[in-house]
Design goal:
The structure holds two protein chains of two kinds. Chain A is mainly alpha-helical. Helix content of chain A is 73%, strand content 1%. Chain A has a single domain, classed as MetI-like fold (Orthogonal Bundle), CATH 1.10.3720. Chain A has a two-stranded antiparallel ribbon. Chain B has two domains: 2-234, Rossmann fold; 238-335, OB fold (Dihydrolipoamide Acetyltransferase, E2P) (Beta Barrel). Helices cover 25% and strands 33% of the residues of chain B. Chain B contains eight helices and 18 strands. Chain B has helices at 40-48, 90-100, 109-122, 138-150, 168-185, 196-202, 220-225, 230-235; strands at 2-11, 14-24, 29-34, 55-60, 63-64, 75-78, 156-160, 188-193, 205-210, 213-218, 239-243, 254-258, 263-265, 275-286, 290-297, 302-308, 322-327, 333-335. In chain B, helix 2 crosses helix 3. The radius of gyration of chain B is 24 Å and the shape is elongated. The chains are: A mainly alpha, B alpha+beta. The A-B interface holds A 200, 202-203, 205-213, 216, 220-221, 224-225 and B 48-50, 69-72, 74-77, 79, 81, 83-87, 96-97, 100-103, 148-149, 152.
Chain lengths: 303, 340
């Protein structure tokens, strides 16, 4: 009796499947390499350089590569600079909250109540219109609005609501907050609109059919489903606000010092080592903020 | 009892429903048969309150429904795509209505858990509560959607092509289960479908929706055997409808003859008592237990004849050849109006 044998000699040459897998892997590397190269040359390398420079020795007009912790000690020992960290964090938190408060209802309206896709796109584009002009103009345009003889003060005086111009409006932390909120709001609106627009309308109808009122549906369905959008928006806004210097420079009248402003002024006076310390601190803060955001919402799961 | 009276609904120029009237008696499985685009879903959406009719009334047990927001209507809606909450687990999906409805929500977690579990058990998903919506199959999602609706004990359940997204095997099984579940709960189901088999299998009563109104609502056996008009007959996919003038002595208007009640003979060989019409054999189609033969009549209309494999009664047919189709006069139904 002949037994059916299933084992044949193992083929020695590579099978077509293995060849294909190898080809796929090569293609993946090929696609990945430009990005990797770019990141290595223009991000990882400079980052290492900044950390390295922060330990260099700073003399009044020059910097040399003798390693020292002097710049770090001066930064961490100075109330001014620690205060700047506090200001940066405070401005970041307030602007983040403000963009969320202003932006979320807009996104809710565009994403949920405008069901016509063309109109949705048109409204989103309308949000970006301020970006058709330069950053500086957008910021400086707040001066005639908020100044002591600006539009708001004039109107309030004409209405008789105030008798003296409000001075806290311009060249204060308030004007910085207003300016930043206006500029960065759209970065919150975009991702949130996208997430809300992706909610299947029948899911909301199902919740209504099960007897839930609009408030409940918002809290239990729409808000949780839009959270990944909020998180992406928050990361956009955070990264930009934490590194900000221009809005503060032109709207605060030098009263508000953010970490970004310190870096600019130190670089301006050729204090490279000290600027590098501020840069490292800023990078650490941004990393911590993003890590925190990603802990709250698992984007890989939600998107 | 759900009463829909003279309801109309237009979308711009398009008329979806035109003076539609329908009654769904208490404790009844009613299926609503209609072609795609006939306004079936629109009717359900009007009843559920997602849209309002342009004219007419909708009432449930004598209370008017139109004008009330959907969450105050106490109607269950099972969506074609299930519309489960993607961020909630199976148990949370089922408990949603109990916990978050505006009218007397449950607050006792133990009671909510018990009732959700009972609902899951009813649809055969005991022990699936902790799963995520993404981690269950299409058939199971269908059951979750059903459990989520039934747990709220609605006064009537609307099902929008509930089996459309399932494969054929699962569909047959869900058909039986839906019927059994409904009988156990004693609540009325209004089940919308485009499949005549599904409508006839499921329904205690079947309503046919055509041209924006109900053209017939009857028991399935009666609807199948005696369609009241040509539109209803056309939806059953079992009736040839042709101009009566094609048959000598056929009278006026249109005639309807069931696919399985037509016999075929060579020209001139038909029995004298039968009505006959000449037609050319186009093609045959074999689909298992039955074989379909297609004929073209003199005026161009297409006729079908069904033959059962176990009891063949047709002669061997040659493509392109002329035959006489004949049938007993009493099997034909006379419909007024000209053929479409």
């Amino acid at each position: 009796m002949t037994a059916l044998s299933t084992d044949s000699p193992m083929p020695t040459e590579t099978s077509p499947a293995q060849l294909r897998e190898r080809k796929d892997r090569r293609r993946a590397w090929l696609l990945l390499s430009p990005g990797l190269l770019w990141m290595a040359l223009f991000m990882v390398l400079p980052m290492c350089m900044v950390v390295y420079v922060s330990f260099w020795t700073q003399t009044t007009f020059s910097v040399n590569s003798t390693l020292t912790t002097a710049s770090w000690e001066r930064f961490l020992g100075s109330a001014t600079y620690l205060h700047a960290i506090g200001t940066t964090l405070r401005v970041w938190a307030i602007v983040l909250a403000a963009t969320l408060i202003v932006g979320y209802p807009v996104a809710l309206y565009i994403g949920l109540f405008v069901r016509n896709k063309t109109l949705q796109t048109a409204l989103l584009v309308a949000c970006v219109i301020p970006f058709w002009t330069s950053f500086l103009i957008r910021v400086i345009a707040w001066r005639p609005m908020l100044g002591t003889e600006g539009a708001i003060n004039t109107i309030l005086m004409k209405l008789g609501l105030i008798h003296e111009p409000l001075t806290f409006l311009l060249f204060s932390e308030f004007s910085v907050l207003v300016g930043m909120t206006q500029i960065y709001c759209v970065f919150m609106v975009g991702p949130v609109t996208f997430m809300i627009g992706r909610i299947d309308p029948s899911v909301i109808e199902a919740a209504r059919d099960l007897g839930a009122s609009f408030g409940t549906i918002f809290r239990r369905i729409i808000l949780p489903l839009s959270l990944p959008g909020v998180m992406v928006g928050a990361i956009f806004v955070s990264v930009m606000v934490l590194g900000e210097f221009a809005t503060a420079a032109s709207l605060s009248g030098r009263k508000v010092n953010l970490l970004g402003n310190i870096i600019v002024s130190q670089v301006g006076s050729l204090k490279w080592a000290f600027a590098a310390v501020a840069g490292v601190v800023l990078t650490l803060i941004i990393t911590a903020v993003i890590a925190l955001a990603l802990r709250i919402v698992d984007l890989r799961k939600e998107m | 009892m759900l009463t829909v009276r003279q309801v109309s609904r237009r979308y711009g120029e398009t008329v979806a429903l035109e003076g539609l009237s329908l009654e769904v008696p208490a404790d009844t499985y009613m299926s609503l048969l209609g072609a795609s685009g006939s306004g079936k879903t629109t009717l359900l959406r009007l009843i559920a309150g997602f849209e309002e009719p342009d004219a007419g009334q909708i009432a449930l047990d004598g209370t008017r429904l139109d004008g009330k927001p959907p969450h105050q209507r106490d109607i269950g809606f099972v969506f074609q795509n299930f519309a489960l909450f993607p961020h909630l687990s199976v148990a949370q999906n089922v408990a949603f209505g109990l916990r978050y409805r505006a009218a007397n929500p449950l607050t006792d977690n133990e009671e909510i858990r018990a009732r959700s579990e009972a609902a899951l058990e009813l649809v055969g998903l005991k022990g699936f509560g902790h799963r995520g919506i993404g981690a269950i199959s299409g058939g199971q999602r269908q059951r979750v959607a059903l459990a989520r609706t039934l747990v709220c004990e609605p006064r009537i359940v609307l099902l929008d092509e509930p089996l459309g997204a399932l494969d054929a095997n699962l569909r047959a099984r869900m058909c039986d289960e839906l019927k059994a579940i409904r009988e156990r709960l004693g609540v009325s189901f209004l089940h919308v479908t485009g499949s005549e088999t599904e409508a006839l299998t499921m329904g205690d009563r079947v309503a046919v929706l055509s041209g924006g109104r109900i053209v017939q609502a009857d028991a399935p056996e009666r609807l199948f055997a005696e369609p009241a008009n040509a539109q209803a007959a056309r939806h059953l996919n079992a009736w040839n409808i042709f101009d009566a003038g094609l048959c000598a002595g056929g009278g006026a208007g249109q005639l309807g003859v069931r696919f399985d009640q037509i016999d075929i003979s060579a020209p001139g060989q038909a029995p004298g008592a039968h009505l006959r019409l000449p037609a050319r054999f186009l093609a045959g189609e074999f689909n298992g237990p039955t074989a379909l033969s297609f004929f073209r009549a003199a005026d161009g209309s297409l006729l079908q004849v069904t033959d059962h494999l176990s009891q063949p009664r047709l002669p061997d047919l040659v493509e392109g050849q002329d035959y006489d189709l004949h049938f007993a006069p009493q099997t034909a139904r006379q419909f007024p109006g000209a053929a479409r």
